[in-house]
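Anyone able to model this chain together with 6-O-phosphono-beta-D-fructofuranose?
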Amino acid sequence: MTQPDMAYPNPAGIKRVAVLTSGGDAPGMNAAIRAVVRTGAQQGIEVVGVRRGFSGLHRGEVQLLGPRDVANTIQRGGTILLTARSHTWRSPEGRAKGAAVLREWGVDGLVVIGGDGSFHGGYFLQEEHGIPVIGVPGTIDNDLYGTDHTIGYFTAVETALEAVDKLRDTGASHERIFVIEVMGRHAGHIALDVAVAGGAEEVFIPEDKKPIGDVVNIVKDSIAKGKRGSIIIVAEGYDGGAEAVAQAIHAGTGLETRVSILGHIQRGGTPVSSDRILASRLGEAAVYALMDGKKGVMVGRIGGGIAYTPLHETWEKRKDVSRDLYRCAKMLSI
Ligand code: F6P
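re: yes, here you go
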């Protein structure tokens, strides 16, 4: 039942919406699912949840979700709908099966919460079968064009930073060099934030192909300046990752070096408030977008407002890292 002061116009005549999470999970995905379900309920729209992303969709893993089904989920990491990286979905036959399931369930539009791989899936579904798709950016990597931040990114940075602070304690006590690898398959957003907030000596990101050998002089310089240990942050997507950087340091300086790869720990945990708020706003906006008759767009947040970006642009155009932050990281590592 729609509360009278909450009613949003529905020129597209949307009656039933499906929501799924796909690809790597991200803290805050549950807050986004909750926002879709509860906005739908407020607007008199039924919401069905698809389990296990696109893999579950073509197998018909669909269930109705009401406001109580998403109670006590806003603070939970992971995704209550489960997620998967689907191979079947890459074939037109797989997508046809998924489309048939959505038609069977009388779905007027699909909300896809995920990253660029998931948006590819949604884009082809819409192109081939005419089902309106709205993307909600959910990935810790923050690598989607069309939004300042993606859901999960803020939490991942906090998790990685907490680890860096701890590694700094042991690194300083042993006067060691610590090379710490953070996630980011193709992007250095997490690495850069963590480097600045964690006071790192140097940061290696895929967006800047500086030679690995540079690290040797950086470490030698820092020793000459009286530093006794160093923290070097490496994004997973930088050639060779942390292991390669550590080997270069050891070969060039002979200094005791340790590697720590933070890995999937960065994808878990209670979402921080910024992720919950972003997810809540974008989940709500995704339902409104379908009611407006929008399709094939991602809802994002740019400068505090809701922005709509064609799905294909989210992966075709590149969101660069903040060059100011990169400069700042170097400036402060004196
Ligand atoms: O979701 C993004 C991400 O965490 C990347 O940073 C990382 O490279 C990848 O997922 C890992 O994926 P998987 O969980 O499939 O190993």
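Residues 153-174 form the longest helix (22 residues).
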